[in-house]
Amino acid sequence: MNITPVILCGGSGTRLWPISRKNFPKQFLNLVGDSTLFQQSLRRVIALENKDFKIDEILIITNENHRFLVLEQINNMNLTVPTRILLEPESKNTAPAMTLAALAADEKNPESILVVTPADQYVKDLNKFTETMHLAIKAVIDKAILTLGINPTRPETGFGYIQYEGDDLIKNVLSFKEKPDLDTAQKFISQGQYSWNGGMFILHSRTWLDAIHMGNQEISQQVRRAWKDRDFDQWFERPNMEAFQKSPSDSIDYAVIEKSQELGLSIKLVILNAGWSDFGSFIALDEIEKKDKNGNIFKGDVVALNTNNSIVISSKKNVSLLGVDNLIVIETSDSVLVVNKDDAQSIKELVKILEKDHQSLLNEDRKVNRPWGWFDVLKISEKFKVKLIQIDSGKSISLQRHYKRSEHWVVVKGVATITKDNTSFDLFENQSTYIEKKQIHRISNRSDNPLMIIEVQSGNYLGEDDIERLEDKYGRKN
């Protein structure tokens, strides 16, 4: 059987703020284990291939902001399975993303079976996951969608629920219930034959394309137009922006799954018992990580006395606790979050308040990844900004200029090849150069080792959008 794994990689992970940010969300973070959640999702779908199941290709659906994070994390894995990265011009929820994947797979091999999973989930038992997926894949027929459900362990209000019937491994789905209140969730669990909705689907591409055309014709038409007029470059495929932006925003569940009867679809359920978590909040760590004798989970530089049942993550500074209980404390370079565990699901509401006056705290941390490396903002004031910049071996920033700021560069490690207007020269450790406003410039690292530079910006405006890219091998625009 031929399969096409589809990894939906567009979530923002706001309930994991301040670790998860808009430009560096939870799927790209190493939260548990030795790799990121996105990389773990790739390893899981690759493990599905054996003598009976052949992967045609892996489709990754993400967006412009995350494209180089995806590319970097794929490259770090040295994959042998072919992958394609499809970039959504705008976030439109999962139904348009699924339609893009189905169109891409249908062109490659109309008989291949889509195996759709989110990029931001954790699964403890890979063998159980593989066994369950193989069972579901074998059960796929035309006009049928298999979904994976999770046996609920608590009356969770942040998940959708699936009502089913039957004691066989392949169960009939009766209904979907989206994020009930606490009383309703408790009733579901006491009644039995309800599972959490794991957001994983197995189906033929043609089944989805027919279903979305009937369930939401506007999504079907606009995404088809966007796919037909797509652009390509070395790494990415970009559906037409104008057509895609006209598509309604809707989820897989609302657009198709909950309309299954009127669409003539058969929805089947397979229970996944593999230590699953959607990592929707910091509370997920309670079910995954080992705790100390007082029920605590500590990561980073944490000192505690008379502290119980708490989760503490420190990224930069020491966090010390005395005589506290049931807390979540998260320290990053620019923010500290302290929340009672019982209110962990409300972090999303806190983020809405932060949006008004602290938007920059939601977009990215002080350390920002770029396709050529990264920079870390060491100090920022009204008239100056200080960065530590790393440029990876063989990489370079774009040929660019700024209109509102000047820059002073000091090489602290490695050798920098500097372009200033029509001249080019090398800078060695402890050497520096000055870039005036409007001066065309570029830094390149032609060595085999990382290059590190201290950059001091000065001017009346220091925003990252003060940049004109004249040449950029990564396909970025202004």
List the topology elements.
Layout: E1 2-8, H1 37-46, E2 54-55, E3 58-63, H2 67-75, E4 83-88, H3 94-108, E5 113-118, E6 122-123, H4 126-138, E7 144-150, E8 161-165, E9 171-177, H5 182-191, E10 194-204, H6 205-215, H7 217-228, E11 231-232, E12 236-238, H8 241-245, H9 252-255, H10 260-263, E13 266-271, E14 276-277, H11 284-288, E15 297-299, E16 302-305, E17 311-314, E18 319-322, E19 327-331, E20 336-340, H12 347-357, H13 359-363, E21 367-370, E22 373-380, E23 384-391, E24 399-401, E25 405-413, E26 416-420, E27 423-427, E28 432-435, E29 441-444, E30 451-459, E31 468-471
Helix pairs in contact: 3-6, 3-7, 6-7
Average pLDDT rating: 92
Give the CATH superfamily of the largest domain: Spore Coat Polysaccharide Biosynthesis Protein SpsA, Chain A
Helicity, as a percent range? 10-25%
CATH architecture of the largest domain: Alpha-Beta Complex
User: What's the CATH class label of the largest domain?
Assistant: Alpha Beta
Distance between the termini: 45 Å
Q: Stretches where pLDDT falls below 50 for ≥5 residues? A: none
Classify the beta-strand content into a percent band. 25-35%
The DSSP helix count reads: 13
CATH topology of the largest domain: Spore Coat Polysaccharide Biosynthesis Protein SpsA, Chain A
Structural class assignment: alpha/beta
User: Measured on Cα atoms, how large is the radius of gyration?
Assistant: 24 Å
Give the count of structural domains: 3
Q: What is the 3D form?
A: globular
